Amino acid sequence: MVKKRAVLMIAVMLGILLLTVGCEKKEPRQIEEKAVPVEIFVAKKSNLSQEIEMTGEIIAGQDVDVTPKVSGKVASVNVKVGQLVKKGTVLFEIEGKEYEIALRTAETNLKSAQNNYDRMKQLYAEGAISKVEFENAETQLKLQQAAYDRAKNDYEELVVTSPINGQVSYLNVEKGELVGAQAPAAGVVNLDTVKVKLNVSENLVGSIKEGQKVSVEIDTLGKTVDGKIYSVSPKIDQVTKAFPVEVEIPNPKREILAGMVATIKLPTREIKNAVTVPASAVLEHNGQQKVYVVEDGIAKERIVSVGVRSLDKVQVISGLKENEKVIVAGNRLVGDGQKVKIIKSVDAAGGEK
């Protein structure tokens, strides 16, 4: 009996509890709009250069083939490929026994001719010989002097040296091998400064000046360096139908190697005091171009007209004012009236503010 009452009481209490819960009014939850994180750029007036991209192969600032001036067997090789050398460093030597003999013979003949000349000069002064005999002695002295100079020069050419400061780029010689003036035996390059050769079209060459600074991207190294226009040919190349232009790039660490590919950004036109924004800020939709600016934490759509474009910046002609906060990252995730949160502000130089 007691058990039945207890069970009945529990059932009544559960019923009351369920009835109470069922009668509670459910309050609707407020869903708060999340702010989209964005990066902004404050529009500024600046000079804007219109640029084109051109690619070219990097060559050494100096590239010299070293060819022996005399023939013979290689006596020694004194350097290896890649070694840094200075002007005058011995690259290799040629065996010189026959050249030494030739030099000594020429030296003896020269002394004999000199003695004969001195004797004949005295006799001519005394009137003991004719002018023709004296002139023959003089001619022989000159011939023997020339022969001695050639022999001495050949002997000195047995030691082959580097003509410039740089690095040994190749060696085509080994000890005991025959070499001669028919083919280069070694190469030396100077990479302290490197160059890129470009072919610039007729309609653009007028905007390029010697000494003008340019931006150079070395994809292999993943870096961008400064260069300058080294030379602009005044004559069109008849094969390429373009003007040869050389860009010079400082390379103090010698990390830029000959044969690498470089991308050159050539300025071709400059606009003064243009309102500019990064190219990433401008979106295109249904044939119109637009940007989003931030006002009081809200994204506002602006239809804009653009002018000159560089590789990473755009001139805004209308629809945007100087000092407005333009969204450059996250702008594809927002709409007009969207709540946003600025997480980064980038300045004109690309740095974080």
Tell me the quaternary state: single chain
Mean pLDDT: 87
User: CATH-wise, what's the superfamily of the largest domain?
Assistant: Efflux pump adaptor protein, beta barrel domain
- Helix/sheet category: alpha+beta
> How far apart are the first and last residues' alpha carbons, in Å?
82 Å
Strand order of the largest sheet: 2-9-12-11-10-13
Strand content: 35-45%
The CATH topology of the largest domain corresponds to Elongation Factor Tu (Ef-tu), domain 3
Counted by DSSP, the helix tally is 4
How many β-strand runs?
A: 19
Order of helices and strands: HEEEEEHHEEEEHEEEEEEEEEE
Helix % is 10-25%
CATH architecture of the largest domain: Beta Barrel
- Write down the CATH class of the largest domain: Mainly Beta
Poorly predicted residue ranges: 17-26
- Biggest beta sheet attributes: 6 strands, antiparallel, barrel
Shape: elongated
How many discrete structural domains? Answer: 4
Radius of gyration: 42 Å
Description:
Strands 2-9-12-11-10-13 form a six-stranded antiparallel β-barrel. A four-stranded antiparallel β-sheet has the order 6-5-3-8, with no helix packed on it. Strands 18-1-19 form a three-stranded mixed β-sheet, with no helix packed on it. The chain has four helices and 19 strands. It has helices at residues 2-23, 97-126, 131-156, 202-205, and strands spanning 36-42, 44-66, 72-77, 84-85, 90-94, 159-161, 166-171, 178-179, 186-200, 213-218, 223-232, 243-250, 261-278, 283-285, 288-295, 298-309, 313-318, 325-329, 340-346. It has 353 residues and is of the alpha+beta class. The model is unreliable at 17-26 (pLDDT under 50). The two termini are 82 Å apart. The radius of gyration is 42 Å and the shape is elongated. 23% of the residues lie in helices and 43% in strands. It folds into four domains: 37-48 and 271-346, conserved putative lor/sdh protein from methanococcus maripaludis s2 fold (Beta Barrel); 53-61 and 190-269, Efflux pump adaptor protein, beta barrel domain (Elongation Factor Tu (Ef-tu), domain 3, Beta Barrel); 68-93 and 159-183, OB fold (Dihydrolipoamide Acetyltransferase, E2P); 96-157, Helix Hairpins (Orthogonal Bundle). Strand 15 and strand 16 form a beta hairpin. Helix 2 runs antiparallel to helix 3 (131-156).
